[in-house]
Write a structure and sequence with these properties.
76% helix, 3 helices
């Protein structure tokens, strides 16, 4: 009985820590998902040089702003 109570308390502490970490998002360290990369590829299809870089930078900036507004 004592072991079960200790196990339940340990589980509750672990799940409580995971919940706060799961919802806390650092927008500065955000990584592009495969969906973002695919969308960027379609957006820059046929573009070259500075135009391609400008589009990619704007899309990354827009994703960053959306992340900041959510938090």
């Amino acid at each position: 009985m004592r072991k079960s109570v200790i196990a339940m308390l340990a589980l509750a502490l672990m799940l409580g820590g995971v919940a706060t970490a799961a919802y806390a998002k650092n927008c500065y360290m955000i990584r592009d998902t495969s969906v973002d990369k695919t969308g960027d590829w379609f957006a820059t299809l046929g573009k070259k040089g500075m135009e391609k870089n400008r589009i990619l930078a704007k899309r990354k900036h827009d994703r960053f702003i959306a992340c900041v507004e959510k938090n």
